[in-house]
Amino acid sequence: MQDIMMLVQDPAAWVALVTLVVMEVVLGIDNLIFISILTNKLPPENRDKARKIGIGLALVMRLGLLGTVAWIVQLTNPVFELFGHGFSWKDLILIAGGLFLVWKATKEIHHNVDPIDHKEDMVGGAAAMSFSAAIGQILLLDLVFSVDSIITAVGMTPHLPIMVIAVLAAVTVMLVAANPLANFIEKNPTIVMLALAFLLMIGTTLIAEGMGFHVPKGYIYAAMAFSALVEVLNMVARNARQRKRG
């Protein structure tokens, strides 16, 4: 209790908390985009439940990993060397998650471009996918993003209460934004392709990070923000043309 009171009175702790909350929210965007796209493939009555379960699992994983901080830190230690680069368990997890994201995004882009060939249309949200399959895929990506998130938190502050508050704040934002984001993606088909492109880029970045090539996150999110702004302008232009015709 005394340690917590000292943190409350420490301005540096407040700066670390705000910084970490922002960082965790930004990192959670990747996870949220994947959950939104995947759950939109389920029947409408199951989507909200799947999103809540997916985000709930993300919270459980992050809090569980925070309880094993000492073990998490060891994940960054190299376990073997290949081509002059030492690979840690964190690297292997990022590479596996990146490969899965690249495969999943590529597959969904192909289905979206040629839905007739695959007898499914992701835009319509009626693609065949079982509830358990969706939860399984969400669980896999939750693990990847959770490990990356907690290692980032450990690197930014040594105080466990600050990490817990930041994680709770980030997951709360994800929970609030989940349905609006998923509904927005479903109602705007062109956004689906943009979101899949984001996932493809994120997957490639994870693989690069796992291979030892540091890619500044600021560049990635700046590119995503610029692309989203361009798409918003396109949507405004399309709506203006439709109103003029009407």
From TrEMBL:
Primary residence: membrane
InterPro entries cross-referenced by the UniProt entry: Integral_membrane_TerC
Membrane disposition: Multi-pass membrane protein
A UniProt-annotated Pfam family: TerC
UniProt entry keywords in alphabetical sequence: Membrane, Transmembrane, Transmembrane helix
Membrane-spanning ranges: 12-34, 55-74, 86-103, 123-147, 159-178, 190-213, 219-237
Subcellular location: Membrane
Keyword check for Glycosyltransferase: no
Coiled-coil spans in chain: none
Family per record: Belongs to the TerC family.
Descriptive protein name: TerC family protein
Organism per entry: Rhizobium lemnae
